[in-house]
Design goal:
By secondary structure, this protein is of the alpha/beta class. It is built from six helices and nine strands; from the N terminus they run H-E-E-H-E-E-E-H-E-H-E-H-E-E-H. It has a four-stranded antiparallel sheet with strand order 2-1-4-5, with no helix packed on it. Strands 3-6-7 form a three-stranded parallel sheet, with helices on both faces. The radius of gyration is 17 Å and the shape is globular. The chain starts with a helix and ends with a helix.
């Protein structure tokens, strides 16, 4: 999600220079045992090094604003202390909160304003019975977005939460199209038109304001 947001951003963004540091297939949750689409899965080998990548990028680029979009990999079932758990359960929320606080620490370490985007609802794949796998359920997305807001509200660096979910799902449910524009390519990832005609016009002015306040 974050990679497509950066990759499809308008070619000549007015007022700022964009660097896309999104990494496909990774989040900040790195517990190695997880379930994706009902099947056992694991982290990709490069996912566990996210802290060094984020810290290195922040140090080398010295950004004014950092946009963080996390969702898919934080919504999976993962095994913590020997039991399967997920966002919305206290022990796992404690783990995720610590990871998110670390993410804000790193991205704000040189004084950048941090914008945390809420996760939008998704419909990546259906179960054989036509239902949704846990990571696609609105309840998981809502639980993550609540946690995101709670961490932002208590973090010393004052990250700002911007509601991408409301932009991509304006009626409070997953949709393929917004204002006549197809915004999702596969029920999860953004389309070029979705970024350029829906997300960027909403997000760019807010980033410019953050950079100057």
């Amino acid at each position: 999600m974050s990679w497509t947001l950066g990759a499809y951003w308008p070619a000549d963004p007015a007022g700022f220079t964009l660097t896309n540091e999104g990494v496909q297939g990774c989040g900040i949750a790195v517990l190695p045992e997880l379930r994706y689409g009902g099947e056992p899965h694991t982290n990709y080998p490069y996912c566990a090094t996210w802290e060094s990548r984020w810290g290195g990028s922040t140090a080398s680029q010295d950004p004014d604003v950092v946009v963080v979009l996390l969702d898919r990999w934080e919504l999976m079932d993962r095994r913590l202390d020997g039991r399967w758990t997920h966002v919305g359960e206290p022990a796992y929320d404690t783990y995720l909160s610590a990871q998110l606080r670390r993410a804000v620490d790193l991205t704000a370490s040189r004084g950048a304003r941090v914008a945390l985007l809420t996760a939008p609802y998704t419909r990546r794949q259906e179960r054989p019975d036509g239902g949704l796998w846990p990571e696609d359920t609105p309840a998981r997305v809502d639980a993550w977005n609540r946690l995101l807001t709670e961490v932002a509200g208590s973090h010393r660096d004052r990250p700002v939460v911007l509601d991408l979910n409301r932009v991509l799902c304006p009626d409070g449910a997953f949709t393929w199209r917004v204002g006549g524009v197809q915004v999702r390519s596969d029920g999860l990832h953004l389309t070029p038109a979705g970024v350029q005609r829906v997300v960027a016009p909403w997000l760019a002015p807010q980033l410019l304001r953050l950079a100057t306040t």
